[in-house]
Amino acid sequence: MSRRISDLNRRAGGRLKPKFTSETVRYGLRRDLEVSAVHPIAKIPISVRPITKRDLAILLPEDTSSFDPTDQKEVFWRRCFVAKVGIEGCHVAIDERDGSPAYMQWLFGPTRNDAIRKVGGFADLSPDEALLENAYTPHTHRGLGIMSAAMALIAERGEALGARYVLTYVGTDNIASLKGCHRAGFAPYLVHTRRFTAYGLLKSDLFATMPADDPRRILSF
Q1: Is 22 exposed, middle or buried (0-12, 13-18, 19+ CB in 10 A)?
Q2: pLDDT tens, residue by residue, 184-202
Q3: What are the residues facing 197 on neighbouring strands?
């Protein structure tokens, strides 16, 4: 057990920055489900459905020794996410050529605000809102345009949760993900600033809705 704890601490250490004060800035992007959007098309045929335990074992295996260090961290942090909130609301995109899971992402409605608070870093959802969070594409299916195509399909499942608006959060410097969200019909709506002090022991979150005429609301690449 002590070796495993040490290994987890080592992995976590690679993700944290030893600074007394720091901050991260993300866009909260939003899609209005009442506005029709063009569906992006992936380079392979996909469909989406709720995740199964079998999908989870394939996407987030316990043994990642054959993965590169970046993918090891990505799998590790998503396994931590599952430990906090479970798999309820998680969807997968299925590669229709062989039935393998090719993408995963959680869709939360306002009844899951308690789970969202466990994760931290998100504003509570209003009754007409849903949240898309923690997207992951395994290395076997990258470069196929799956993210934006799957996001668009999963977001539309928010209607069954009573949502008109679907939110997702992306770092302002993560251009690849911003492009993918843009293709899926999302545009910047708010700015989330998270401030850390005392080497990360204290943190605060500020969510600021952008004015309607804020030029950042229009993504251009």
Answers
A1: middle
A2: 999 999 999 999 887 667 8
A3: 202
What pLDDT band is residue 219 in, cutting at 50, 70 and 90?
confident
pTM: 0.86
Residue 21 makes CB contacts below 8 A (sequence gap 6+) with: 195, 196, 197
* pLDDT (tens digit per residue) in 46-76: 999 999 999 999 999 999 999 999 999 999 9
Please provide residue 129's backbone torsions phi and psi, each rounded to the nearest 5 degrees.
-120, 155
Instruction: List the one residue out of 56, 142, 63, 143 whose CA is nearest residue 106.
Output: 56
The arithmetic mean of pLDDT across residues 193-213, rounded, is: 89
**Which residues make Cβ contacts (< 8 Å) with residue 38, sequence separation at least 6?**
185
